[in-house]
Sequence to fold (167 residues):
Amino acid sequence: MNMKIKAPAMKFGNNIDTDVILPGKYLVLVDPCELAKHALEGLDPSFPQKAKEGVILVGGRNFGCGSSREQAPLALKYAGVKCILAESFARIFFRNAVNIGLPVIECKGIFSAVNTGDQLTVDFEAGTVENVSNGKKFQVEKLPQFIVEILADGGLIENLRKRLNKK
Fold:
């Protein structure tokens, strides 16, 4: 995994739940690219078009609350989300995102320091987030090494395959 991610921000609010991230009627879809076409459509129908070149989502508190559907972070990843920064995450969403290889980082104060369109840089090794557009910088808790390895391998399944093949 590239230890730095640079992309424009797309900002959403507090309590963005999994039903908003991916409405339940799309859970019948199995192709992640098809799921991506419906990511966040209730909040912004043009989100997949805006995100396709790569974005960093910025959320408020409790991002990913609601049901435990793994399809929600999967839809975001395949729509072009490179990373999600939020004030806080629902724990099951956080773990589902890591499991499918989508970086998620809790960053206190990020919501008020970012506007949609701001250029952000996330440095996983240094544990920093910078809003290049306004110069604001944040120190975040570094992800544990085992999570960095899961993300670098593209998700938990790929990480397990890699570890099992080494034996």
